[in-house]
């Protein structure tokens, strides 16, 4: 009902505006001013272009400086330095062009506003100018694209053999986390095995799965490579860890990956920010449904020795829920019990 009333109100408002315009046109015809090419409003509008340029341009610079710390977060990974450098180079190149073109865009209407004693110049072509403004942007964009491609290739290349593996599975509306056990290899999974007690669909008939364990948060060591293996159970999600400069989509049926080296522990970042409550986090950056905002997980970066100690304290899926062992072969159960 409210939507209908709003729609009716919008239609009435547009009708009134149109009627006012028609009345103004008829009045101009009666006065004979409709034959006049330029009026006083021409100068006003030309001046307002300059006002808009100064006001909005000033607001943009003021807000960008004021909120700089909120959108330029401290870097907590080695590759983050590379991606930030590429970002600011791209921002500098495109930003300078943006500012120059918009100054010209708003100054020209003022400088070349209509005047009865001035005639526009006819300037049909300039081949030299055409070549310059086609070649220069092409070369600049080529350099930016190639450097970006090189950085992206390094990030998405196979992880080092000693990388610590963490599996992240997104679903509406949470992240589940799985670590490999002592064998450092994740076991198989199969979506057909998904159930209330096995939400990740882990195949426990695979011996590599028996020592896998869950965690309520992502714990990773400082200064050592970490490989995120990412998948989704239902719809498209996206793993986003802003301080790590990490973002990778979680796609149903198409596992993805992202490896990085964290270089600041959580404790070090808390000291740097002077915020004892700070935590790194993973958030979902794909609108995946009504509970999208709930898809968050804490990342805790610790020293390598503390990480190894934490690993020894974790319980496997089978230890936490023996019912998961039902239906698996006796040999696998024996391996699980030994481990």
TrEMBL record:
Needed co-factor(s): Cu cation
Family of this protein: Belongs to the cytochrome c oxidase subunit 2 family.
Residue span, Cytochrome oxidase subunit II copper A binding domain: 161-313
Protein name as it appears in the record: Cytochrome c oxidase subunit 2
Top enzyme class: translocase
Record localization: Cell membrane; Membrane
InterPro entries: CcO_II (IPR045187), CcO_II-like_C (IPR002429), Cupredoxin (IPR008972), Cyt_c_oxidase_su2_TM_dom (IPR011759), Cyt_c_oxidase_su2_TM_sf (IPR036257)
Membrane topology annotation: Multi-pass membrane protein
Location of the Cytochrome oxidase subunit II transmembrane region profile domain: 59-159
Primary localisation category: membrane
Catalytic reaction(s) noted: 4 Fe(II)-[cytochrome c] + O2 + 8 H(+)(in) = 4 Fe(III)-[cytochrome c] + 2 H2O + 4 H(+)(out)
Reported function: Subunits I and II form the functional core of the enzyme complex. Electrons originating in cytochrome c are transferred via heme a and Cu(A) to the binuclear center formed by heme a3 and Cu(B).
Residues spanning the membrane: 6-23, 44-65, 85-110, 131-152
Gene source species: Algoriphagus marincola
Lineage: superkingdom: Bacteria
PANTHER family in the record: CYTOCHROME C OXIDASE SUBUNIT 2, CYTOCHROME C OXIDASE, SUBUNIT II
């Amino acid at each position: 009902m409210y939507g209908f009333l709003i729609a009716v109100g919008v239609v009435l408002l547009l009708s009134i505006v149109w009627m006012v315009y028609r009345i103004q046109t008829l009045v101009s015809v009666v006065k004979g001013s409709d034959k006049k090419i330029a009026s006083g409003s021409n100068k006003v509008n030309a001046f307002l272009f300059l006002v808009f340029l100064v006001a909005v341009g000033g607001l943009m610079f003021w807000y960008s400086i004021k909120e700089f710390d909120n959108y330029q977060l401290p870097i907590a990974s080695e590759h983050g330095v590379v991606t930030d450098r590429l970002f600011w180079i791209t921002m500098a190149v495109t930003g300078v062009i943006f500012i120059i073109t918009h100054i010209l865009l708003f100054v020209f209407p003022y400088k070349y506003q209509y005047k009865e004693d001035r005639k526009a110049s006819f300037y049909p072509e300039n081949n030299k100018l055409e070549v310059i403004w086609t070649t220069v942007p092409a070369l600049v964009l080529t350099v930016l694209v190639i450097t970006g491609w090189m950085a992206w290739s390094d990030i998405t290349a196979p992880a080092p053999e000693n990388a610590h593996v963490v599996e992240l599975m997104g679903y509406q509306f949470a992240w589940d986390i799985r670590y490999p056990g002592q064998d450092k290899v994740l076991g198989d999974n199969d979506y057909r095995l998904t159930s209330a007690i096995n939400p990740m669909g882990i195949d426990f008939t695979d011996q590599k799965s028996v020592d896998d364990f869950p965690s309520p948060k992502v714990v990773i060591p400082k200064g050592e490579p970490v490989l995120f293996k990412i998948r989704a159970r239902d719809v498209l999600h996206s793993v986003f860890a802003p301080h790590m400069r990490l973002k990778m989509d979680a796609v149903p049926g198409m596992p993805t990956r992202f490896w990085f080296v964290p270089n600041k522990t959580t404790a070090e970042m808390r000291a740097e920010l002077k915020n004892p409550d700070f935590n790194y986090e993973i958030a979902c950056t794909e609108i995946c449904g009504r509970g999208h905002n709930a898809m968050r997980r804490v990342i805790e970066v610790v020293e390598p020795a503390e990480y190894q100690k934490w690993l020894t304290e974790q319980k496997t899926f089978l230890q936490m829920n023996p019912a998961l062992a039902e239906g698996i072969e006796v040999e696998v159960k024996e391996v699980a019990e030994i481990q």
